[in-house]
TrEMBL record:
The keyword Flavoprotein does not apply. Keywords: Kinase, Transferase. The keyword Cell cycle does not apply. One of its GO terms (molecular function) is kinase activity. InterPro entries: Quinoprotein_ADH-like_sf (IPR011047), WD40/YVTN_repeat-like_dom_sf (IPR015943), WDR62 (IPR052779). It comes from Trifolium medium. This is Mitogen-activated protein kinase-binding protein 1-like. Signal peptide: none annotated.
Length: 98
């Protein structure tokens, strides 16, 4: 689970294997992000500080980057030796460490 810097939006992954964004004040679903079943199960989700991107690691040892507003997958990173359980954005919001 990740909360934006203003505490207005939360992004979650759960047992339903979906990435979802909620409005904190109203507790309503804003959007659900579509992902291919071959990605496996979502493990960890974060937002960048500017709330432009959502990054999610999956059980297929990869991470996928989504546009926060549209939910469209914009990039992926593969080749990890193990499942990625930690992901962070560097302060410049241009680099990810996993």
């Amino acid at each position: 689970m990740a909360v934006d810097l203003t505490s207005e939006t939360v992004v979650t992954v759960g047992q339903d294997k979906k990435i979802k964004t909620f409005d904190v004040a109203t507790r309503r679903l804003i959007r659900s992000y579509n992902h291919d079943k071959v990605f496996g199960e979502p493990i960890k989700v974060i937002m960048d500080p500017s709330c432009t991107y959502v990054v999610c690691s999956f059980s297929n040892k990869s991470i996928y980057i989504y546009d926060f507003m549209t939910g469209e997958m914009v990039a992926k990173a593969t080749g990890h030796a193990e499942i990625v359980t930690g992901v962070i954005f560097l302060p410049d919001c241009k680099h990810i460490v996993s």
